[in-house]
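Supplementary Methods S3. Input chains for the assembly prediction are listed below.
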Amino acid sequence: MATVRILPSIPVPPESFEARRNQYYSTRILKEMLGEVPPNTLKLLGVTDKDLCIPILTYVFGEAQVGGTAAVVSLARLRQEHYGLTPDRPLLLERLRKECLHELGHTFGLVHCPSRDCVMYLSNTVVDVDTRGRDFCDGCQTVVGSGTTTERRG
Amino acid sequence: MEKKVNIMVVDDEEIVRASLTGWLEEDGYHVEAVESGRKALERLPERNWDLMLVDLKMPGMDGIQLMDEVHKTSPEMLVIIMTAYATVDTAVKAMKKGAYDYFVKPFNPDDISLTIRKIVDHHKLVQENLFLRKELKKQYKLRDMISKNEKMLEIFDLARTVAKSSSTVLIQGESGTGKELLARAIHDESPRMDAPFISVSCASLTESLLESELFGHEKGAFTGATVLNRGKLELAQDGTLFLDEIGDISLKLQMDLLRVLEQREFRRVGGSELIPINSRILAATNRDLAAAIAEERFRADLYYRLNVISIHIPPLRERREDIPLLVDHFIEKFNIEMGKQIRGISEGAVRMLMGNDWPGNARELRNVIERAVVVAKGNIVTESDISLPSTPSDANHRAKSLEEIEKAHILVVLKENQWNIVRSAHALGIDRVTLYNKIKKFGLKKEGVPPKV
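Predicted structure tokens for the full assembly:
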């Protein structure tokens, strides 16, 4: 089994701030994180409260390097209050869990899965996040499983 | 496995290229990004691109200019124009120029996902359609042959299968059924397709000519052999040798050919050197070889050598359903050859063609259509454009033996000359005694009166 360690927080790099959009550019955050990867680390997952975007898209829930090491997930648009609704902590945690699995899935080389029951199903809205499955489908699980074994051996 | 969708991103800003590439890759697409229109045009032939995401404002060639250039060579290419400075004018211009869609940066992730999904679904349908159409055509076609007759389709399948091997094939069928076309198709479908296909018509040459034609001859092998001449067997090296009208070759040549087939080597006429052959032999005949063997005009051992795989092409009258298909095929062919624009054929004309017995088979039909395309006044071939060389009753007449024709002709000449033997013999170009003998032999009688013989 892989060991999960929670590292002390690091500040969001100031150059990732896009003043015009009042958002943070997630690719620059990923770049910063790559400099902070401790030795013997398989994957590094960042969680931030900042609203993330990439230059070409109005927002992203998270970003990952496909087949790489780092992934980052934002809480901003997973909160009910972002949509003018009452805060719902269990729902937020469920959404965060799904998003973390989804972005980590990308780091294992997975691309979006056509199955709605799979956590790798593409989601651009929280409704998508809520309706898709909470775990990997059998096919995607195989990739993540074999990826873990191979990389740990290496 | 499903084919990956190929997307090319063209944008002068590195950060846009990187983020768009990363985001699309998460969706499982194959993405390549370039920084200019010029680079995009260079990369265009490298792959079957399904979609281009092109920035409107770039130094040098702008997005719309690039789209114009791309559409010159790939008119089907789907191009999405992206811009940071949205104006109604540019959007309208892009769409009018043939852009598939127009996105303002930054895009809503849901919009672009949906658009690309839509394109991919459309793309799948187009591919599926193309594939099915190809399958359909493949089913009806073998190279230059076309048919929807079940027996013919079985032959096409068999031909495709035997093409992979080097076995000798004997193709039988009436003249004009397409024996040589089938032989060529077998060659073209075979691994030998890039090597020569050499065809020899055995019926058209005398024995000695055919011998030197097949085996070639050394310089000085006979009078007139002033230079070394390579025969068809040598020319067909690595390829296919097609022996047409094999039923017409002499017993001596049959013997020589059998030796070649068995030993896979031969000597040029007048030569001593043994030359190995590795060409594939296909043979064809319109004769009944079994009958020829019974009459000892064809060697049984050669027959078995040639008849490793036997294909019998049915005559056109046994596959009338192919007539309309062949007619369309020939019209299309002659339209191209003659620069005509015939769009089709009238129902009456098709009925007329379907009713004919086609003793000359598809070749005869082709000739009739060739003439019809030449004489057709309008853009539809009609009954008046069709001239059948024989009515069905003529065809029956032709099917009779020479003897029956001789008998009928003598009777006609006798009647014309009121049974005057001298004049009739003169008209027939034979002497009186011969005519008497023939009258007796055929039992010809003057109507109502017994012959005076």
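The longest helix of chain A spans residues 89-107. Chain A touches chain B at residues 21, 27, 53-60, 63-66, 106, 111-112, 122, 124-125 (CB under 8 Å).
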